[in-house]
Amino acid sequence: MPANLTPAYFEAEKRFRASETSEEKLEALNEMLRVMPKHKGTDGLRAELRTKIARFQKEATKQQATSKRGSVYHVPREGAGQVALIGLPNAGKSQLVSTVTKAMADVGDYPYTTKLPQVGMMKFENVQIQLVDMPPITDHDAHPRFAAVLRSANALLLMVDLEIDPVAEAREVMAELEKYRIGLAGMKDVPEEVVFQKKGLIIGTKSDLDATGENATGLKATYGEEVPVVAISTQDGSGLDELKKRVFDALEVIRVFTKSPGVQANLNDPMVVKLGSTIEEAAEAVHKDFRRNLKFALIWGSGKFDGQRVKRDHVVQDGDILELHT
Ligand SMILES: Nc1nc2c(ncn2[C@@H]2O[C@H](COP(=O)(O)OP(=O)(O)OP(=O)(O)O)[C@@H](O)[C@H]2O)c(=O)[nH]1
Ligand SMILES: [Mg+2]
């Protein structure tokens, strides 16, 4: 029986072959397994994949236990998603992190201020998003794990200074990214070598220094149709709210709330699940046993009416409130 593998499978396989760390290999293998059609013709392949996953899982755990623990280049994911900031020296990456998070990132009016990744949590409405401030991408003494951080991030912010020539700067950053085989999803004319397509945004910084707004307009005209472009200034605060919203959207996650019968949901404490998740996937996110034991769910939000009883495969929407009955 033919396996009928999909383009998504071959994409993931390509990524697997280009991966350098067992962490990346694992990510690709899991994706291959996820997108593989399930029928008799793929039984053997799926079994083989599971064996490989088990092997790389073991290796990844071993590596974490030894070399990477404690390494600043191993950035554990926190919050609704992890977003890495990349750009040329002085683009304003650290300034953004210190403006929108409580972290004190080193800001300097000289290039190569940031030597190591630094994290901060950015609040968007009722969720926290993890920002990873990176050394400049042109830092050629960069740690060998520099690329791994970018590849494992959920999204990238490509930061360019609006003061002089943001389009040229964006081009330069993309060329550097390509050396790591990374590209921004949605961009046209991506070279063959790029196998890691990351969700991303282009952020024009220092809009206060682009008095006529001409450079921001040029940047949007060049890239705006392919990826979101947002102009910001940490000086006067413009664009920061839009940035937070766009970053949240790029993560492709939604917020759902769970409640007990007769009790109001706590709307300050969402559970974050992948966009497109079903009731049973949301239940699993609460606890793995919930999925198995789930009998039915009531939903407020994307149901036809409040408190509607829905099936396990009902797709949940951002803001839904769920009452899970086991
Ligand atoms: N006027 C203005 N200056 C800014 C803005 N954002 C950052 N700057 C200045 O730009 C300079 C560089 O900022 P950083 O945040 O250190 O830049 P970086 O991208 O982290 O630089 P590296 O760590 O070297 O890669 C600092 O002098 C900041 O004060 C802004 O929105 N407006
Ligand atoms: Mg910096």
SSE layout and pairing:
Blueprint: H1 7-18, H2 22-35, H3 43-68, E1 82-87, H4 93-100, E2 118-124, E3 127-133, H5 146-152, E4 155-161, H6 166-179, E5 182-184, E6 196-198, E7 200-205, H7 214-223, E8 229-231, H8 240-250, E9 253-258, E10 271-274, H9 279-286, H10 288-293, E11 296-300, E12 308-310, E13 321-325
Helix pairs in contact: 1-2, 2-3
Q: How do you describe this structure in short?
A:
The chain is α/β, with parallel strands linked by helices. It is built from ten helices and 13 strands.
Q: Would you write up a description of this structure?
A:
The chain is of the alpha/beta class. It folds into 3 domains: 7-68, no CATH class; 82-250, Rossmann fold; 253-325, Roll (Ubiquitin-like (UB roll)), CATH 3.10.20. It has helices at 7-18, 22-35, 43-68, 93-100, 146-152, 166-179, 214-223, 240-250, 279-286, 288-293, and strands at residues 82-87, 118-124, 127-133, 155-161, 182-184, 196-198, 200-205, 229-231, 253-258, 271-274, 296-300, 308-310, 321-325. The protein is globular. The two termini are 39 Å apart. The model has no long low-confidence stretch (mean pLDDT 90). Guanosine-5'-triphosphate binds next to helix 4.
